[in-house]
């Protein structure tokens, strides 16, 4: 009987510690996923600011199912989205210098992220441009990719 009481006491002491460890592990994993997405956005900014639109697109899902919603409507597909970027920003002057401000980054599911942000293009010769965006991310084959972009 004493052994049972000791076992119950030890379990009641260690169970919350083990449970806390699990929560901490999940928070660390979430922080890792958050850092990964923010690093992708930083890389995209650097690529844009270097005039490398093709590299900027590496953050997007290379699929015909990619969606981009903008002022001109909905674009479906990676290649069509890339073509629109190149058409809308044909020169370094038109591309300007990009800056992202991330306002919200949530994970509604372990393999899904939702980002709300603001962009600003500094373009001294033709006028600055700015707006807001929402990005839906999916973790596919262990890589975070933008599957839907709504920018205005």
Automatic annotation (TrEMBL):
This is Nuclear transport factor 2 family protein. It holds the Pfam family DUF4440. InterPro entries: DUF4440, NTF2-like_dom_sf. Transmembrane segments: none annotated. Residues 37-146 form the DUF4440 domain. It comes from the Bacteria.
């Amino acid at each position: 009987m004493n052994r049972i009481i000791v076992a119950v006491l030890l379990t009641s002491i260690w169970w919350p510690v083990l449970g806390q460890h699990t929560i901490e592990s999940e928070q660390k994993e979430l922080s890792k996923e958050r850092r990964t997405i923010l690093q992708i956005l930083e890389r995209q900014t650097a690529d844009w600011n270097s005039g490398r639109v093709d590299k900027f697109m590496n953050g997007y899902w290379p699929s015909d199912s990619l969606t981009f919603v903008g002022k001109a409507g909905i674009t479906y597909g990676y290649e069509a989205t890339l073509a629109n970027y190149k058409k809308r920003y044909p020169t370094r002057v038109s591309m300007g210098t990009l800056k992202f401000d991330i306002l919200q980054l949530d994970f509604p599911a372990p393999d899904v992220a939702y980002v709300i942000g603001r962009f600003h293009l500094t373009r001294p010769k033709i006028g600055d441009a700015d707006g807001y965006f929402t990005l839906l991310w999916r973790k596919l084959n262990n890589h975070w990719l933008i599957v839907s972009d709504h920018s205005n």
